Amino acid sequence: MSGSILILFAEDEPLIQSAAEDALVDGGYQVLAASNGQEAIRLLDERIEEIGGLITDVRMGAGPTGWEVARHARSLNPELPVVYTTGDSAADWAAEGVPKSVVVQKPYADAQVLAAISSLMIISS
Fold it and tell me: Can you tell me the distance from the alpha carbon of 80 to that of 69, in angstroms, rounded to the nearest whole number?
């Protein structure tokens, strides 16, 4: 099912990004990495037609938050599957998250992120 779907993965922690990216690739996805919210928004603007899902950390230092990245993504593609990852902002998901999204609490097993995006892909198809 996942085939060659391109996932935009926004995460400012290189070790977390690398491990989760490996799990996504092993799960059959292609990954486009962004190290902050500004880069994620730029990639969304440039490649929204190719991007089939978004995984974003909520807090990525200075610049746009994951909440803002996801809202921007949904303004471009209202059906885009969105997974948030966070160590401390899960309680804000109901108020800040976009509809039909999932939040995965850090620390997480890489398989959790893979399962979350895969389940949203099934729901949106």
Answer: 12
